[in-house]
Structures are given as C-alpha cells and as structure tokens.
Amino acid sequence: MPGYDLHAHSTHSDGLLAPAAVVARAAARGVEVLALTDHDEVSGLVEARAAAAEAGITLVAGSELSVSWDRLTIHIIALGIDSENAMLAQGLAAIRTGRTLRARRIADALAEAGIRGAYEGAMQYVTSERLISRTHFARYLVDAGHVGEVRDVFKRFLVPGKPGYVAHQWATLGQAVGWIRAAGGQAVLAHPGRYKVTRSGMRRLLSEFRDAGGDAVEVLSPSHTPAQVAEYAGLARVFGLRGSCGSDYHGPGESRLDLGDLPALPSGVVPVWKDW
Questions:
Q1: Which CATH number do you get for residue 149?
Q2: Does the pTM of the predicted model rise above 0.85?
Q3: How many domains does the chain have?
Q4: Domain that holds residue 119
Q5: What is the mean pLDDT of residues 102-129?
Q6: Measured between alpha carbons, how far is 146 from 153 in angstroms, rounded to an integer?
C-alpha cells in the first residue's frame, strides 16, 4: 500500500517549514501521497504542487477548516479540493478574517493577565500575511520566557478557563462541509479524540457530520491512543464513514509524529482514498 499522510501544515498557516520543504521531507521519509492541509488556507498549494512534481510524489490539495459545533471548536479537513473554487475561497476568507479579530482579543486577554505586546510578538512568527493562529502566540510566549514549551502554552493560557482564551464563532458544520463539497473535495473529521465530548456527544457529532455530507474520520492521528484508534475505527464503520490518516505535522520539535510515521489503517476501515 502506498504511504499516505493526509494532514500536514506549512508556513502558510502555523507550520515551521515552507510548502516545498514539507513536500521534500515527506518524500525523503517515504510518503507517496501527501495532503497539505494548512489551517483555513490554500495559498501554499502552488509551491507544494511544483515541489511534489519534482520529488515524484502525489500531492492532494487540502485545507483544515475551523468549525464551531455545540460550543466547541472542531476541525474539518478538506481533501482533493479545487483550490480555486469561488465558494470555498469566500468561506476560507471569512474564517481568516475571524482569526484576525480573535487574535486581537487574545492579545487583550493576555494583557489583562499581565502579558503586554502579545499581538505584535505573535506577528513576528507569522510567515503568511493572511493568517495568524494561537500557535503563533504560543511560540512568542515560549521565546519570551513565559512558558517552557509550546504545548504547555495551550494548557496555561489558550484553552477555556485560562487567561488568554477567547470564545469565537467559526463556520458552521454545514457551511464547512458544503464549501468542501462545492469544491469537489471530501470532508474528514480531524483528530476526533481531541474534542472534549461524551461518548453520546461524539456519536451525535458523527451523525450530524455524516448527514451534512461528511465523508471520513481521521482514525490515525498523533492525538489518538491505541484504544482511541480502535474506537474511531469502529465508529467509522458504524456511521458508514471512511477512514483517514495524518501526522498533523507542524515542524521539527513541535510534532509528536514526523511525516509518514503512521501505521496502516485498522482492518475493516474503508480508506478515504479508495476511489482516488
């Protein structure tokens, strides 16, 4: 089976490597089919396509869309999209505008907690002029000496109940899936194990996702324990959804898995790429 890695980020969102460098690293690590899935962004795909053609691997055009569902932020991965589709482009632009507004509010919240200048600090780490994320704030807070590691920033500042957290309304589940399908793509529920929902809540999410036109669940993710891999493989079968896999790679030192560090999908799971 070819090596698939269908979840990776570049400097066009919150990754540390340029699109071409992500592709080159994936190819060197044995990935044969790579999806570049920058958050709410597709601007890195032109560079990634050229690099993939040179490296001799297949690039899948993707993005990772921010969605609000039942007072939670969840992520829907788009795979195989027409990145120039007008409906998708408009939707992504609206989400990015919301990101900028949220970033200003995060900076205000951090200032109230005694950390001033966080917006300007975070912007030093933004390599794409169109998108700022919580990860950029996290990198600033680490380098400024407020926290030891990027992952610890989220626990101390950027999650509900912490000083730098602000609630935000993203796209709805129906909107995001609709944009993806309008662009000819497949919609994948990213890393479901990260969402703080009950078992019944997860089943409700999967039911609504499927009914909205969703295609697959990310069964293999660095966010998942072996037990969760088995759990989401079973839920994919129950809800008639396909399975996907991705390292969620952001760059050296910030990712639990490197590109291509994924086992095979559990048996009985229909892969999202079955009809590619």
A1: 1.10.150.650
A2: yes
A3: 1
A4: 97-158
A5: 91
A6: 9
